[in-house]
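Hey all, quick one. A colleague (J.T.) asked me to put the 4AD job into the tracker so the inputs and the structure tokens live in one place instead of scattered across chat threads. No bug as far as I know, just bookkeeping. Sequence used:
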Amino acid sequence: MARTLIRELARLAGAQTGVRTGAAADPAETVTVHGWINALRLQSRMQFVVVRDHTGLVQVTHRRGGDGDPVEAALERLTPESAVKITGTVVANPIVKLGGLEIRPERVEIVALAEAGLPIDEHSGPEHRLDWRFLDLRRPERQLVLAVQTTVEQAMREVAAEEGFTELHSPKLMGAPSESGAEVFRVGYFDRTAYLAQSPQFYKQLAIAGGIDRVFEIGPVFRAEPSYTSRHATEFTGVDVEIAWIEDVEEVMAFEERMLHRVLSRVTERHGEAIRELLGVEPVVPALPFPRVTMAEALARLRATGWDPEGVAEDLDPEGERRLAALVAEEHGHAFVFVTDFPASVRPFYHHRRAADPSVTASFDLLWQGLEITTGAQREHRYEVLRAQATEKGMALEPLASYLDCFRYGTPPHGGFGLGLGRVLMVLLGLGSIRDAGFLFRGPNRLTP
Ligand code: 4AD
Ligand code: MG
């Protein structure tokens, strides 16, 4: 018999009692649901089973028939999380807490019996849950994260397509590190060493040099950072954007705002209710434009609040980011803030420096509720200036040769950003850790599953 999704049952039960149609009751509908055993209550006279599929939960109610009752025997063998197909009639029953309906089973097929004694439960810690991620994923709130992620990416692609972007899939195996070289994974590559891309940075710029006007990529990014925080992964999904012929980095920021506005609108439309219900979080579509503050202003204002990290800070530490977010929230009622004009000392060699003050870059970070979700910048497109900036940062030019060549034959001014998808989902869904903000987490101590 064809499968019926659990979310369809209410309509079928309603039809049968005439609730929806107002017509005389139809005969009870026979349905087959496919799903997992969410809960079992096997009493002396009655057997109650809650079945779950990806669309909801339904109670199955059976009055024991005694010897020779195959339904009773099958229900008796069940264990939590076993996979079953249950065929029966769906009836409205106001006594049933779960949606006011139940299935009276006629046939129970045990498709795959789960071993007794599940390795995780709702009290399990995050690492233990990750060990058993496939079981953890059976919880609706975990699946919601991936459903929202799908919508987030769709909305991003939607905006990018409307604005004339080309989607790239750049290689992740490289002959030289893609950024600083410090946080790079080395891999054996035949008789030499290859590096895993720390970002698509150089390749998206190569595309701009190739005359592709605007590019974006959603793909894996690798960072050999031994960080054990709630917001760091060693492999994560990056959203990278690069735009040619810009006059100012402001154009890049404006694009990112439009993109995030669309993302939050779509997520709210499609998942607002589920997010509220399962995660207790209220998604908010942000007002445009987002507040902007220069790094110099931010540092001055934070120092005025007593924030004073060791040494002479030119950059924000996580505590500074949180405090700044609190100030902005108070002043503008906004959860986002662009921090702009970072000092050249804390930015990579390829960031463009302001003509009026070369100690400052045309760059930005975007913070959302105090968490950095993006770094972006205008890039230095002048070959000689770029070489000089790399040398100044103490970088050898030889490993950069194929990148630097991109600036020898007419590359226009351009800029872009990199955004961490997991971090966006973390903030959006109020998740405590990036471990829950994607499919399978990768960290310094985690290579399986
Ligand atoms: O700030 P990052 O390192 O910047 C770049 O990769 C530049 N190439 C971007 C550019 O176009 N200028 O990384 C971009 C974003 C961060 O803001 C953060 O959201 C995320 O990637 N990110 C991480 N997410 C999870 N785990 C990590 N270890 C991350 N490192 C960065
Ligand atoms: Mg950054």
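Adding what we noticed when we looked at it: The chain has two domains: 6-112, 131-436. The mean pLDDT is 95.
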